[in-house]
Fold each of these.
Amino acid sequence: MLITPSQDVGCETASVREDPFYAGLPRRRARGKDYDALVVETIAALRRRWGASLLVHFEDFASRNSYRLLARYREEVGFQTATQTRKPK
């Protein structure tokens, strides 16, 4: 099973957060440990639900997060990027 989770981690632009039509979380973007904790919690929940059949598609992560997260989860869950697909050993 391929899962493409979408996570709303907030928005830095106050005018966007205050717009009544803004559908995202009306708070500043999660960063650092808070951001990492959200990803850890999400991956853990997905693994509990789908187990070893889980394949997570990482897309549109900021560069500072994407390589670090892919390196962390490379051996734990399957992952897919635009250039390669790999399942855990």
Amino acid sequence: MLTGRIVFEDDFILAFNKKAGELVHSDREGNESLTELLIPPGTASDRPCSQTDPSPAPAFFQPVHRLDRPASGLVLFAKSTSAFTALSAVSYTHLTLPTKRIV
């Protein structure tokens, strides 16, 4: 289902090709979302924070934006809070990210 649909990934972001009908975030009916399917095990989003847990905070993993269920296209997931903040600012101001095309 998800194989071959990661368009780009580095230490900060993951770009995923979402198909129409898939959810970016879970819904009220409890349908599984891309965030849940793609989340790396042990990330902050995967387990609640605990004041009694002395281990360092695990990695971050959140979608920067969403696409409605009927829409298809690229969804960006941030792997750190700094990447999330920077990409959210770009998305919010409607600036265009530089693109690289390989011919």
Amino acid sequence: MKKILIADDNEDIIDILSNYIEREGYETVVAMDGEEALQLFEKEQPILVLLDIMMPKDMRYVELFEKAQTFQLSLLRQEEKTLRE
């Protein structure tokens, strides 16, 4: 099942987003801070990250954003290579 990572420190927002996402057939993975979001991103490899950049605990969202961009570019290169073959 395709996973979507929700990184937010507000449980109400997490509940609302999770309900909508799961109704559409996706699995949700939840992180309450930037450190946990980084760990889950690397472990779960979600297809999408919904990221609250105003989480008070830390500023690791920048690192997560950079890793997500690198991961996305890597996937695009793999798809391009497959199409050329």
Amino acid sequence: MPVHLPLSKHNSRRDMTIRSTKDVAFISEFMAPGYLTTGLGFTYDPGKIFTVVLSPASWRGTFVLNDRLSDEGAYGVDPGKHLLSSFGANLKGEVKYEFLKKHDCIFRLDFVF
């Protein structure tokens, strides 16, 4: 079992909602929210198909760098704050299956405790 030193992952998204033809507002932007997960852990990789990663000590930060969304308290941050910190464990599982030549099907589960 290899040890990860450290394990990191970053996600962000951007969505828009239209309230009316004159009122267009973003409900998210780049890094609003942005998620950064980092931790120490182990990888179990018995073969080509299945992989499990366990990080018993991990940190997840939720960033809301847009002032309007931050002032609303969007995505769990306190109103006016730009960061929500969470500590705990992280468990990831991945199954990768080649159903045709050069065509893979990948299933992933990611749990944060």
